[in-house]
Design brief:
The protein is built from 4 helices and 5 strands, in the order ααββαββαβ. It is an alpha+beta fold. The longest helix has 10 residues. The termini are far apart.
Length: 128
């Protein structure tokens, strides 16, 4: 007889509530070596959804999720896609690396505008 889900499922499930702070969810994922948690209400009986490491990184990085893909596997974050400006890439990589449970970041990001070579505009210059 083939194995059934009840034969291989986890009984003690780590969950989050919709009001659980994002940093606490990141800590739970790292501490329990999980890639995702169910989000529940009604005393753990009703599942609202699932929050993953990739979801948390997308939130923390404050980038358009439609333009960037975040994949997390065994604490290694792979970032692919496009950001608006080249100067954002090191910021995104640094934020991803600072997320609890991340051990390494692989950066495959590209950009629309290379703003690292642009002279400052007159409105951005400070007068001395």
């Amino acid at each position: 007889m083939p194995a059934r889900v009840q034969d291989v499922m986890t009984i003690e499930v780590v969950v989050a509530q919709p009001t659980t702070p994002v940093k606490q969810v990141a800590r739970l994922l790292a501490d329990h070596r999980l890639s995702a948690l169910p989000v529940v209400v009604d005393g753990r009986s009703r599942v609202l959804g699932v929050v993953s490491e990739a979801d948390l990184l997308g939130h923390e990085l404050l980038v358009d999720p439609a333009r960037m893909e975040v994949e997390v596997r065994d604490g290694v974050v792979s970032l692919t896609g496009r950001v608006e400006r080249r100067s954002l890439i090191p910021i995104v990589v640094r934020l991803a690396g600072a997320t609890e449970g991340v051990v390494r970041v692989q950066d495959w990001l590209t950009f629309d505008l290379d703003d690292t070579r642009l002279p400052p505009s007159a409105s951005n210059r400070q007068r001395i």
